[in-house]
Write a structure and sequence with these properties.
With 199 residues, the protein is an alpha+beta fold. Helix content is 55%, strand content 17%. It has helices spanning 5-15, 19-28, 33-51, 82-85, 88-104, 116-132, 137-155, 170-181; strands spanning 58-66, 71-79, 161-162, 165-169, 186-194.
Length: 199
């Protein structure tokens, strides 16, 4: 099957993958743009998984101010080399993260960062609420697990839907960026301040 340069260009714009990868994906999927994009995403996610163990000590501290200086964010994003740290794609990712943090106010980077005491408090609140609502004891544990999962989705940066595209999470966006840059990327830490908030 003949794959046109226009189709390759469309797939590149859609996925950010290289020309040869786009051409190969289109050939493998008989020119079907949607299937080729899904193929590249799956391939990219697999590549991102392989890179996850590599050390990332370079990167950027991105600063972002929102609402005329009412909200401020600082986020540290690490990669493997200063070459990638200087690219527009990496800097754009760091900026999007800072913007997202300003808008969504996560409290932790990921579930592993949530202190055990906070998890126990959330568990106890969810249990008490389920019992107050008159839920049968046999299903209370499932309700507690569901509410704890919802807490993680609201409080953990990597679990939140991306503010610019709610079809993907920040974890998905991170994997896409790892796939596109070819380096391991880590969201190390962040801080968010809001004018007049209590510490």
């Amino acid at each position: 099957m003949e794959i046109s340069a226009q189709l390759v260009k469309q797939l590149r714009e859609l996925t950010g993958a290289g020309v040869l990868d786009c051409r190969k994906a289109l050939i493998e999927n008989d020119g079907d743009l949607e299937k080729a994009a899904a193929y590249l995403r799956a391939k990219g996610l697999a590549a991102a998984e392989k890179k996850a163990g590599r050390e990332a000590k370079d990167g950027i501290l991105e600063l972002y101010s929102h609402g005329g200086g009412r909200v401020g964010v600082m986020v540290e994003v690490n990669c493997e080399t200063d070459f990638v740290a200087r690219t527009g794609q990496f800097r754009g990712f760091a900026h999007d993260l800072a913007l997202h943090i300003a808008a969504s106010a996560p409290r932790y980077v990921d579930q592993a960062d949530v202190p055990a005491g906070v998890i126990e408090d959330q568990r106890a609140k969810a249990r008490m609420l389920a019992l107050q609502e008159g839920k049968p004891e046999r299903i209370v544990d499932r309700i507690v697990d569901g509410r704890l999962e919802k807490f993680y989705q609201e409080a953990c940066l990597l679990r939140q839907p991306f503010v610019k595209d709610e079809d993907i999470t920040i974890a998905d966006l991170l994997k896409q960026t790892i796939s596109a840059t070819g380096e391991n990327i880590i969201i190390r830490r962040f801080a968010r301040w809001e004018l007049g908030e209590e510490l």
